[in-house]
Amino acid sequence: MFAVVLVGGFGTRLRPLTNAVPKPLLPLGQRTILEWMMVHLARGGVTDAVLALGFKPEPFLAAFPDRTCAGVRLHFAIEDSPLDTAGAIGFAARSVALHERNEPFIVANGDIVTDLRIANLVAAHQRNRTAGALATIHLTPVTDPSQYGVVETTPDGLVTGFVEKPAPGTTASRHVNAGTYVLEPASLAAMPGDGPLSIERATFPHFVQQRALFALQTNDYWLDAGRPESYLRANLDLISGARIDRDDAVHASAVLAPECEVRDSVVGAGAHIGNGARVVDSVIGPRAVIGDGAVVERSVALGDVAASHVVRDTLIAPA
Ligand code: GDD
Ligand code: MG
Predict the structure, then answer these.
(1) Distance 318 CA to ligand 1 centre (A)
(2) Which residue's alpha carbon is at the smallest distance from atom 39 of ligand 1?
(3) Structural element, H or E, at residue 238
(4) Residues with CB under 6 A from ligand 1
(5) What does the domain layout of the chain look like in residue ranges?
(6) Nearest to 89 by CA among 81, 79, 102
(7) Can you give the pTM of this predicted structure?
(8) What is the mean pLDDT of the chain?
(9) What distance in Å separates the CA atoms of residue 231 and residue 77, rounded to the nearest whole number?
(10) Which H/E stretch holds residue 295?
């Protein structure tokens, strides 16, 4: 099975981290967000993934020189200019001729961290197909839906409303688009891939009109790692065991001075925590140096923190 993974956005909400590193290549535990995505897709039966690239494609090509990750074959589709979500899907899917194949494919937003079983979404889609489904999308409950695509469904999963980032108070639904889809090849007719088009604002509302959009709601672990608090949370949950997947908190090659304190934090390969430094609820990137006596709390330090400096609720880009 193929997947198209959307990784071409600007990562605006995670600046300054994303000035240097595209969002999907930011650390998540001892891997990257994208590597965990590939582990997750592979487990769900995906053999091939097309990375829909736009902003900063080079680091992706450099990260996977042998064009494989977690056993998934990688293909690269690079946009000349941003095509938005449906434009990017149409362009990337055609680059590997998915419009000519006879089987559905997965689409995933590249910043999603979830325990959803992809195979369950595929199975739901197979059932919906007989009712004319062009797409089946994963839904998750949230407390504040205004930052997401808000979805209304009938009890049997037919989507009756899809509104992207509605003004607060305009919808009663607490179920949002969770950013993983199963699409029929025929859905690509609505996504020509030759210009900017939004799947959330144009394609999905159009499918709703056609009664061709279906949904599967689950209570699996889910978050969108595209905001500072949720990106940090994704890391802390991965080391605390709040999820099916778990990762080492401190990389074996990191150097921790004898008198430092490191608690509930990710410390990447080759990082150095100085004498008397205190690191709590934070991510210290690979090779970052935290100086003697520095304090880092609820922060992401992909770059260095000078001796004795105190940083709280801060994102520090690599130097
Ligand atoms: N290739 C390419 N080209 N990718 C893009 C482009 C583009 O022009 N624009 C955005 N993307 C990618 C981003 O890199 C990201 O992986 C994905 O598309 C979604 O973009 P976000 O910027 O993360 O969107 P969002 O988080 O505000 O909203 C989306 O995700 C929510 C769930 O987390 C929407 O799909 C919402 O409906 C959804 O609820
Ligand atoms: Mg997002």
Answers:
(1) 24
(2) 148
(3) helix 228-240
(4) 6-9, 52-54, 79, 82-85, 88, 109-111, 148-149, 164, 176-179, 200, 224, 226
(5) 2-224, 248-316
(6) 79
(7) 0.96
(8) 96
(9) 26
(10) strand 295-297
